[in-house]
Every structure is written in C-alpha cells, then in structure tokens.
Amino acid sequence: MDVVNFLKFGFPAKVSRSGMIFSLALFSALTYFCEDAIAQDSSSRYGMGGQTRQFGEMRKQLSESGQPFRIEGHCQSACTMFLKMKNACVDPNAELLFHAAETPKGTQRMLNSYNGSLRSYLIANHIMETSTFTTISGRDVIRKFGYRACSPKS
Prior knowledge:
With 154 residues, the protein is of the alpha/beta class. Helix content is 35%, strand content 20%. The protein folds into two domains: 3-37; 41-143, no CATH class. It is built from five helices and eight strands. The model is unreliable at 1-39 (pLDDT under 50).
C-alpha cells in the first residue's frame, strides 16, 4: 500500500509516500539553501563561561563547522574566547565580561583568543590580572577593537 498513516496534532492523517518524500526533500533543500532557514549557533548557552581548555576545544569544533556563530547577550570569562572564530560575529547589544582565569595558563589561553588591539587594551589596563569582571559592550568590541558586527536578527 502506498499510503502511510500517521498521527499529527492528535488526529489521524493519510499522506502518500511520494508526498512525504517530496515534502522532506523540499524542507531539506530550503534548510540547505536559505540562509534564514539555517539555525545560527550563538554564545547564549555558553554565556557564563567555564574552563578555558574545554572552551578552546569547543571553539575549535564550532569554528571548523563553518556555521555562523553569534556572540550575543551576556558572555563572560571563557565565553569571550569565541572572539577568535573567523565565523563569529558580535551583536552590538552583547556584553562581554573579561577577567583573569584561575591559572596563568588559562589567562594566556584567553588572551591568545583576542586580536592584537583588544589584547593590548586588556593588558595595558591590567584587566587580565584580577578576578574582577570588566564589561565591554558589543558595540565597543566592534568599534574600538575591529570585530565583525552581526547583522540584525530578522
């Protein structure tokens, strides 16, 4: 039989196999070819930071995927390491919080994640020598330190 019965939203429906295959193929094509259909990953689930070694590995995987990555919202500590990704952009409304890591090696991992102008600023202002957070807005990260701005969400 070429008809598949399935439940959707609590009521039975009949759909031909060719109709279902066409729908899945169309959805797949739209997801693949339409930029807006691709879910853009973001820093929102990593905003509270964590261990610099783990973030370095995670950043590498996300970077290698080539998928767009949006730094947005609250992004503190190791979360700021996403700035190193070529496929990352910064939302002007983001808040990035910088501080020294628990170890000198962790602090160096974070510093190595930033471009020269941001790294120089953080070092010159002794921001990476203390556990106290210093907040820099996404707007300033873009304007003062040259990071790429994200396009507005649609």
